[in-house]
Amino acid sequence: MLEVEESKSLERQEMERVRIIASYDYQLLDANKHFDDINDQIYQLKKEKKPVLGYLFSLRSDAMKFRAFMFEKKISFLTHHIKDDEVLERKIQEMIRKHDNS
User: Fold this and answer.
1) Is the Cβ–Cβ distance between 78 and 21 less than 8 Å?
2) Rg (CA), the chain
3) pTM: predicted TM-score of the whole model, two decimal places
4) What is the pLDDT of residues 23-75, one digit of tens each?
5) Quick one: pLDDT at residue 99?
6) DSSP string over 40-94
7) How far from chain centre, in Å, is Cα 44?
8) In angstroms, rounded to a whole number, what is the distance separating the alpha carbons of residues 18 and 74?
9) What pLDDT is stored for residue 12 in this prediction?
10) Which of 3, 35, 52, 77 has CB atoms 3.0–4.6 Å from 63's, for a disulfide?
11) With contact defined as beta carbons under 8 Å apart, do 4 and 68 qualify?
12) How many C-beta atoms lie closer than 10 Å to residue 14's C-beta?
């Protein structure tokens, strides 16, 4: 019974991990689209030889910062969970060795 509960718990944790990664991916895609839209506006204004308003450069800078922030958060999340997975794997291996020695 304990093994079934542990298996379900690990499955729920993995599903949550996948949802979090998907959320980061969605936010990064949205930030990239926003960044591209701003760049397109700037390009179009330059092409038409119209003045580019300063707020567009500010928006582009903010979009770049947000993309970098979200990317760092995703990498941090992935790195942290890889370390957790490695610790869990070592514990499982130790338990298997102990069980085999019994």
Assistant:
1) yes
2) 23
3) 0.67
4) 999 999 999 999 999 999 999 999 999 999 899 999 999 999 999 999 999 99
5) 72
6) HHHHHHHHTTPPPPHHHHHHHHHHHHHHHHHHHHHHHHHHHHHHHHHHHHHHHHH
7) 32
8) 12
9) 84
10) 35
11) no
12) 12
Residue boundaries of the structural domains of the chain:
2-101
Tokens matching residue 85: 């997975």
CB neighbour class for 16 (10 Å; exposed up to 12, middle 13-18, buried from 19): exposed
Give residue 76's identity as a one-letter amino acid code: S
| Cα–Cα distance measured from residue 72 to residue 61, given in angstroms and rounded to the nearest whole number | 17
For the purposes of burial, counting CB atoms within 10 Å of the CB of 12, is it exposed (0-12), middle (13-18) or buried (19 or more)? Answer: exposed
Q: How far apart are CA 66 and CA 32, in angstroms?
A: 10
